[in-house]
Amino acid sequence: MLINLLIISLVTVLFVTLSRKRVYVQFFAQIFFLVQVAFATWAVLNRGTTTLTYFTLDTLGVAYYVLMALVGWICCWQSSRYLDQESLRECKIYLVSLIALNVALTGVYFANDITVTWIFLEATTLAAAGLTYHRRTMRSLEATWKYIFVSSAGIAVAYLGILLLSTVSASGAAADLSYAALTQAIASGAGNPLYIKLAFLFILVGYSSKVEVFPFCTVGVDANHSAPTPASAFISSALVGGGFVAVFRVWKTMQGAAALASWTGHVLLLVGGLSLLMAAVYLGRTKNLKRLASYSTVENSGLMMLGLGIGGLGVWAAVLHSLAHTLIKGSFMLQISVVGKMYGSYKAARNGGYFRADPLGALVLVCCLIALIAMPPSVLFRTEYLILTGLLDKGLWWVFVPVALLLVAVIYWLCVKLLPLVSRPADLSRINREARNPLLSAVLLLLVLLTFAAGVWQAPELVRLVDTIVY
């Protein structure tokens, strides 16, 4: 079935490229995303299946793929309205890049071999670069080259880590680099512990541009700022989820050896703390709504790393946090795309009166803000509570205090810069009211309310889903 999806994507790209009318281009792109939704349904019903040797439809990959299919379809839908002034050629390049990014992320989610994950993560760099350079301005060109250079350098560093891991499960002249084989080999004490530690460090640093954590998170922020906002929504949600999946799989291979598990935990605590620090500092400096949302992603990804570093319930919280963040951040950025289209600017200080201009859209923004700052009933309140109490249970009060203070700073800056947008008096005579999309806002509101429902009552199916991924 996976090969069928690849064939359909290639055929769709061909039709998109050859189409001479915008309506046909958008139609064929929508067909791809509808097929992707159908494949997501098939994947749910066939969990545990291995196809093409190197891909397994495990619960972790299927969960993120379902979210990607949903967010991707909504992004494609909003893109047709957001890019209504683009030329036919620009529209084609944009949609081909978006489809390519979806296909690459499918490989990342389902790969059962660390080298295959590495290959598809590099493919996401090229696809995301096409989206980043869409506007073809000097700023977008700079952001694109930064993204390509830093992400590729990071992927090269990650490859050094994979080479070091190849010494762990080597058998004669070959090495089995499937995650299952690496887990078994590390648990049995095979390999040099120093090499394994260096491998994890290199891979974490290399993948940091994808999961948007310290040290390479800034290139992801720049890419989100330069790309069209519907594409930024996809990058901030699905691509960040792909980075988390890649890091999570490598981290899990280390957990069979107590010494390695402890060491990786300390590394992740450091990376998570530094990511929170960067987010808190830059949130205070930025005045752009898209960059504000992007640094919020850095903060949330830092919390995920803290959860993995704590272990135990912290891991459970990190996985749930990542799944919920995919929906919340995608919804947030998509609604921001409506704001930008209406006001013609993403400058937070210039815009206001959004509640009067678009009441339903403003309600979505407020709900997303409540979700992102982890206020009840947000499901992120529960996950952050588990992470913070996990720090105290481990006796890491020296980590708990700065993390709590940084979270307070993040909450302050998000509220200070977002609430005036919806409540501040402003002249609304020049805004483009035709850019409102009530149906999109209704769908996004439903998605955010679903995360609120998960914060109030966690259904047994959701608990079993996260349990299966973690344990």
TrEMBL record:
<keyword id="KW-0812">Transmembrane</keyword>
<feature type="domain" description="NADH:quinone oxidoreductase/Mrp antiporter transmembrane">
    <location>
        <begin position="111"/>
        <end position="402"/>
    </location>
</feature>
<dbReference type="GO" id="GO:0016491">
    <property type="term" value="F:oxidoreductase activity"/>
</dbReference>
<feature type="transmembrane region" description="Helical">
    <location>
        <begin position="23"/>
        <end position="42"/>
    </location>
</feature>
<feature type="transmembrane region" description="Helical">
    <location>
        <begin position="395"/>
        <end position="416"/>
    </location>
</feature>
<feature type="transmembrane region" description="Helical">
    <location>
        <begin position="437"/>
        <end position="457"/>
    </location>
</feature>
<dbReference type="InterPro" id="IPR001750">
    <property type="entry name" value="ND/Mrp_TM"/>
</dbReference>
<feature type="transmembrane region" description="Helical">
    <location>
        <begin position="145"/>
        <end position="168"/>
    </location>
</feature>
<dbReference type="InterPro" id="IPR003918">
    <property type="entry name" value="NADH_UbQ_OxRdtase"/>
</dbReference>
<keyword id="KW-1003">Cell membrane</keyword>
<feature type="transmembrane region" description="Helical">
    <location>
        <begin position="357"/>
        <end position="375"/>
    </location>
</feature>
<dbReference type="GO" id="GO:0008137">
    <property type="term" value="F:NADH dehydrogenase (ubiquinone) activity"/>
</dbReference>
<dbReference type="InterPro" id="IPR052175">
    <property type="entry name" value="ComplexI-like_HydComp"/>
</dbReference>
<dbReference type="GO" id="GO:0005886">
    <property type="term" value="C:plasma membrane"/>
</dbReference>
<feature type="transmembrane region" description="Helical">
    <location>
        <begin position="91"/>
        <end position="110"/>
    </location>
</feature>
<feature type="transmembrane region" description="Helical">
    <location>
        <begin position="303"/>
        <end position="324"/>
    </location>
</feature>
<protein>
    <submittedName>
        <fullName>Hydrogenase-4 component B</fullName>
        <ecNumber>1.-.-.-</ecNumber>
    </submittedName>
</protein>
<dbReference type="Pfam" id="PF00361">
    <property type="entry name" value="Proton_antipo_M"/>
</dbReference>
<feature type="transmembrane region" description="Helical">
    <location>
        <begin position="62"/>
        <end position="79"/>
    </location>
</feature>
<feature type="transmembrane region" description="Helical">
    <location>
        <begin position="263"/>
        <end position="283"/>
    </location>
</feature>
<dbReference type="GO" id="GO:0042773">
    <property type="term" value="P:ATP synthesis coupled electron transport"/>
</dbReference>
<feature type="transmembrane region" description="Helical">
    <location>
        <begin position="231"/>
        <end position="251"/>
    </location>
</feature>
<keyword id="KW-1133">Transmembrane helix</keyword>
<keyword id="KW-0472">Membrane</keyword>
<feature type="transmembrane region" description="Helical">
    <location>
        <begin position="116"/>
        <end position="133"/>
    </location>
</feature>
<keyword id="KW-0560">Oxidoreductase</keyword>
